[in-house]
Design a protein that fits this description.
Keywords: Calcium, FAD, Flavoprotein, Membrane, Metal-binding, Mitochondrion, Mitochondrion inner membrane, NAD, NADP, Oxidoreductase, Peroxisome, Transit peptide
Number of helices: 19
Strand content: 15-25%
Cofactor: FAD
Oligomer: single chain
Protein name: NADH:ubiquinone reductase (non-electrogenic)
Domain EF-hand: 381-416
Largest sheet: 7 strands, mixed
Structural class: alpha/beta
Strand order of the largest sheet: 10-9-8-5-4-11-22
EC number: 1.6.5.9
Number of strands: 28
CATH class of the largest domain: Alpha Beta
Helix content: 25-40%
Length: 583
């Protein structure tokens, strides 16, 4: 009744005051809208009533449901977007536990969460489509997709999806370095299906080796498990496999005990070379004690159905053929074909990943963002902008720069160019005045005054501290969270920019650039021992670190359902051992 009364009063006002300008009154009833419209130039006094058309929402297309894409979806809470998720995988997988799935320590179902369950309770309109993106058209703002073969009648119903913003978070694929035979004969460890395939293959190897018709030589070959790659994934899988064999399988297959061999091939001088040297040394010694054969400096040149050929550095280029039963290939990541084609389209050739700016925008594409393993941040160098920085800091246009003038913009400089702060720390300098003093060693700090050439000299080594971020779940998750927060505040930041000064332009950047915060890394080494490297150069190795690993990973799982299932799996393994059934 109140709504109707308001409408009548508005109508009477239009009739009584025909000189009023055009006036629109919007009444919203139970989520629907009606508009009362009056035209001052109208002589009939008629009022048209029509539905209010909703303001068009921006269409955000997210390609991928890995760490980056899922973190973005979880943190996005701005209802002004329509979100379309496209991925051939309708779930999020907690990939750090994939090595545990290969040996039955954790079940595959325990580490996955349906993507629809993750987004269904959000206040944002999110829809999901189980399909694979095979082409990105930046000019027309479209992505072209094809359904999964299992969800399509003939696998050929291709379709296009329009977007206003595109978030590319499709991860990467295993890097084979074009080594012959790798794709045909090796197992990878990137997806849940890979882990399940490896688990079946391990059990199959023990069952085959138990057949009475085989020779001892053939049993030895079948039970030779080779891991290529001494990074965290390869090392953890080798450790999990060793525990599986010695704690569980030798009890069920006692005759196979003397034939089992695990070999870890690493082309570099050490395994876990991204960790502290103390961890590297401990891991190599532990593997030696456990009987895991670690071959350093061994580069794989070919893989056949029964042999893997390696070339050892410093051995005169001699190639050695090693018989094997199963190979797991874990040597880093490569670029998806769709990403490679898109990079060629936008002129980013000869790169391993999409180049983005510090705000995760793909360079040359303002409406496309890329994060996770498929992208790398192209941090701008200080020396590229040194003249603009000098001009912006020199507020009195004197042609020289004092310490006071530089200190007024140092916060913006450190935020825009993080290598400056890293350089100060590496040189153990207390403040920026110490850095500027390098250009004029005989002048007191407060009296320092530099011209442009002296300023360049003072900052000449700053860019040496630039490093690419590692391709880890930790980085991808932080990038997804950062980008979601940017989207949540997009309109507000347009009006009130919160980023650093634009040194080459006027004003400020809308947002602060992405900054990765490292919380540490783990390397499970088997036998309930884990190596932990935490911020502050803190290293811990042993069972206490294993329990820290349990608690951290349990807390990082995406839902309470997966937490309960994983903890239940760990408990079951402690009580009953790992399941060796081939399912």
């Amino acid at each position: 009744m109140n709504g109707l009364s308001l409408f009548k009063r508005a109508s009477r006002a239009f009739d009584d005051y025909p000189t009023l300008a055009k006036l629109i009154v919007v009444c919203t009833v139970s989520g629907g809208g009606y508009v009362a419209y009056a035209d001052a130039n109208s002589t009939s006094g008629a009022h048209a009533i029509a539905p209010v058309s909703e303001i068009r929402k921006k269409k955000v297309v997210v390609v991928g449901t890995g760490w980056a894409g899922t973190s973005f979806l979880k943190k996005l809470n701005n209802p002004s977007y329509d979100v379309q998720v496209i991925s051939p995988r309708n779930y999020f997988a907690f990939t750090p536990l994939l090595p545990s799935v290969t040996c039955g320590t954790v079940e595959a179902r325990s580490i996955v969460e349906p993507i629809r369950s993750i987004v269904r309770k959000k206040g944002v309109n999110v829809s999901y489509c189980e399909a694979e993106c095979f082409k990105i058209d930046a000019d027309n703002k479209k992505v072209y997709c094809r359904p999964n073969p299992d969800s399509s009648m003939n696998g050929k119903e291709e379709f296009a999806v329009d977007y206003d913003y595109l978030v590319i978070a499709m991860g990467a694929r295993p890097n084979t370095f074009n080594t012959p035979g790798v794709v045909e004969h090796c197992n990878f460890l990137k997806e849940v299906e890979d882990a399940q395939r490896i688990r079946r293959s391990v059990i199959d190897s023990f069952e085959k080796a138990s057949l009475p018709t085989l020779s001892d030589e053939e049993r030895k070959r079948i039970l030779h498990f080779v891991v290529v790659g001494g990074g965290p994934t390869g090392v953890e899988f080798a450790a999990e496999l060793h525990d599986f064999v010695n704690d569980d399988l030798v009890k069920l297959y006692p005759a196979a005990k003397d034939f089992v061999q695990i070999t870890l091939l690493e082309a570099a001088d050490h395994i876990l070379n991204m960790f502290d040297k103390r961890i590297t040394d401990f891991a190599e010694k532990k593997f030696h004690r456990d009987g895991i054969d670690v071959k350093l400096g061994s580069m794989v040149v070919k893989v056949s159905d029964k042999e893997i050929s390696t070339k050892v550095r410093g051995n005169g280029g001699e190639i050695t053929a090693i018989p094997y039963g199963m190979v797991v290939w874990s040597t880093g990541i490569g670029t998806h074909p769709v990403i490679r084609n898109f990079m060629q389209q936008i002129g980013q050739t000869n790169r391993r990943a999409l180049a983005t700016d510090e705000w995760l925008r793909v360079e040359g594409c303002n409406s496309i963002y890329a994060l996770g393993d498929c992208a790398t941040i192209n941090q701008r160098k200080v020396m590229e902008d040194i003249a603009a920085i000098f001009k912006k800091a020199d507020k009195d246009n004197s042609g020289t720069l004092t310490v006071k003038e530089f200190q007024e913009v140092i916060d913006d400089i450190c935020e825009r160019y993080p290598q400056v702060e890293l350089h100060l720390k590496s040189k153990k300098m207390r403040d920026i005045a110490d850095l500027l003093k390098m250009a004029k060693a005989d002048v007191a700090k407060e009296a320092i005054e530099l011209n442009i050439e002296e300023f360049k000299k003072a900052l000449s080594e700053v860019d040496s501290q630039m490093k690419n971020l590692p391709a880890t779940a930790q980085v991808a998750a932080q990038q997804g969270t950062y980008l979601a927060n940017c989207f949540n505040r997009m309109e507000e930041a347009e009006k009130n920019p919160e980023g650093p000064i634009r040194f080459r332009e006027e004003g400020r950047h809308r947002f602060r650039p992405f900054r990765y915060k490292h919380f540490g890394q783990f390397a499970p080494l088997g036998g309930e021992q884990t190596a932990a490297q935490l911020p502050g150069d803190w290293v811990s190795i042993g069972q206490s670190s294993q329990w820290l690993w349990y608690s951290v990973y349990a807390s990082k799982l995406v839902s309470w359902r997966t937490r309960v299932l994983v903890i239940t799996d760990w408990t079951r393994r402690f009580v009953f051992g790992r399941d060796s059934s081939r399912i």
